[in-house]
Amino acid sequence: MLTSVIWIAAAAFGLALLLNLYRLIAGPTVPDRIIALDTAYINSIALLVLYGIHEETTLYFEVALLIAVFGFVSTAMLAKYLLRGDIIE
Predict the structure, then answer these.
(1) DSSP string for residues in the chain
(2) Which CATH architecture does the domain made up of 2-84 adopt?
(3) Left if phi > 0, otherwise alpha if psi is -120 to 50, otherwise beta: which for 34?
(4) Cα–Cα distance between 12 and 58 in angstroms, integer?
(5) What is the pTM of this model?
(6) Which of the listed residues 17, 19, 57, 61 has the most CB atoms within 10 Å of its CB?
């Protein structure tokens, strides 16, 4: 039962990643592309957690945590760049 639920959830998150890729490529504005990139890393975190549950190992949870930290920092950096035009003051 759990295996089938994991596969259904992985398929849903995989579809969401494909839709994010479309928005990342065809996004009319830069903020749309940044939001698509932010959503893509969140979906990749979800896929890694699902795979970690499936494999019953904690290694993928640690990788997901690293992706979350880097994703947060990159989103904050890109938002600051859009607001001020530079990253370092």
Answers:
(1) -HHHHHHHHHHHHHHHHHHHHHHHHH-SSHHHHHHHHHHHHHHHHHHHHHHHHHHT-SHHHHHHHHHHHHHHHHHHHHHHHHHHS-S--
(2) Orthogonal Bundle (1.10)
(3) alpha
(4) 22
(5) 0.83
(6) 17
